[in-house]
């Protein structure tokens, strides 16, 4: 499985709690080097899956491979290469942020105590917490705890970082910083698996994504694949009828939308197939003396794809 | 995170070819965790209050009587330590051990730190070993606290002289203090079985208070069973059986029989409940 180019690969992964099936035969493929969005409403089985990937919980059925090694049997070799934030941060409230990181660093076998202080200081610096390093974690805000949780994942260089809802409790500024941090990590070659129930929040970040719903995988793949190859082509022009003719010659079935117009301009909508370039359409329109006032190519958001795939809103299930 | 562009410094993280699997750093971290908690100091303070209260009560009333050794305090301050440990053994010491041992993994689970320790990956058996080591260290600290504070307050409030042993011979003060410390060790060993039981119960739950209470209740139940003569057949196997056997260390020459029997019994409990704890903890889904 080492040659598969997948940082995480599950086959038929299933987890049952009593009669409740939290995860149902999941085939997850996280490509090495990707930023992988693991999406789904609350209660869709994302965190349970992540717990199994990290050997915290044993699968009821199925296989897991993380960084090319089988889990949970090889967890002692795999986990030092993995950093993770799972279901919110967990800390000793009576210890300082620095002492908490020191504790987790000391718990990792094979870390040198000589350089521990440096690793802790670096991790704190990367999440912007040096000023609060000596304060007790009990006095931290939720956002600060979240940052400290990310710092734990960054104590040692990792090949895979798993972040479960990393922007929980963060303000917009903190959310942007987390995004920048993830991009930075990914640029250094780390595969990042980010789970979230807020599609819009991490959509701009991911190269790949998987969408979960009630324990099942609804879709996964590259982001463009997921969004579909069809985009919407929107044109604003006073020469609507002529434009429809031009677009038809390029294989686009266009519609004039009467109720949306400014002055004598009218809107023409068409579905843009993946093999047609919008710039070719525009030059063809201009060549045919269509007065082009505005053109927009709108690709559906992941959220719209999700609604289309499931026919339902992105809300809490069960 | 304003420094997000700072590259990850690569110092540390031993090369993957030779990764020492040492337990030393983790053990130190566990001990530091234990003694950096205000709760630990509150427990030790409560234990230290026992000899102080005893000594002050005897001093103010000027009369002896009551539990064993209390009567001798006014005549020889060294007996404060013996009296205090006799008072602490049935309830107060098991109470504090129950708190520390019952909290071991359940406490980490309730804080949410357990999953992060396991991801590091601390190793589940490695974690249980250091948790037991910390509980054992606490047993010793707790017993020594009662004994040492007892001796100190006795020295402060009462005359001190050679001690007459249970066998009738007199030993000098320094010899008596050495025997007192030996008694503290005996009591600490006595509590190891209870620590293992607490550790096991702690692996069963994510609610530390439940594990603490169950551990303390078991220690009391065992003592009650031990007091029922109808159940004498099971008495040798109760972990509380030798809890008061430290009197043998006050004979001349020292009788080591109860020390040995006690150590063997406690060892048996540690093996049985330690194995149960491992069996449970190694296979358990961590969902906290």
UniProtKB/TrEMBL annotation, chain A:
Coiled coil: none annotated. InterPro entries: AAA+_ATPase (IPR003593), ABC_transporter-like_ATP-bd (IPR003439), ABC_transporter-like_CS (IPR017871), P-loop_NTPase (IPR027417). Keywords: ATP-binding, Nucleotide-binding, Transport. SMART domains: AAA. Residues 8-239 form the ABC transporter domain. It holds the Pfam family ABC_tran. The keyword ATP-binding applies. One of its GO terms (molecular function) is ATP binding. Signal peptide: none annotated. It comes from the Bacteria. The keyword Transport applies. Belongs to the ABC transporter superfamily. PANTHER family: ABC TRANSPORTER, ATP-BINDING PROTEIN. This is ATP-binding cassette domain-containing protein. It comes from Labedella phragmitis.
TrEMBL record, chain B:
The keyword Transmembrane helix applies. The chain crosses the membrane at residues 41-58, 78-101, 132-157, 177-201, 213-234, 263-282. Keywords: Membrane, Transmembrane, Transmembrane helix. It holds the Pfam family ABC2_membrane_4. PANTHER family: INTEGRAL MEMBRANE PROTEIN-RELATED, MEMBRANE PROTEIN. This is ABC transporter permease.
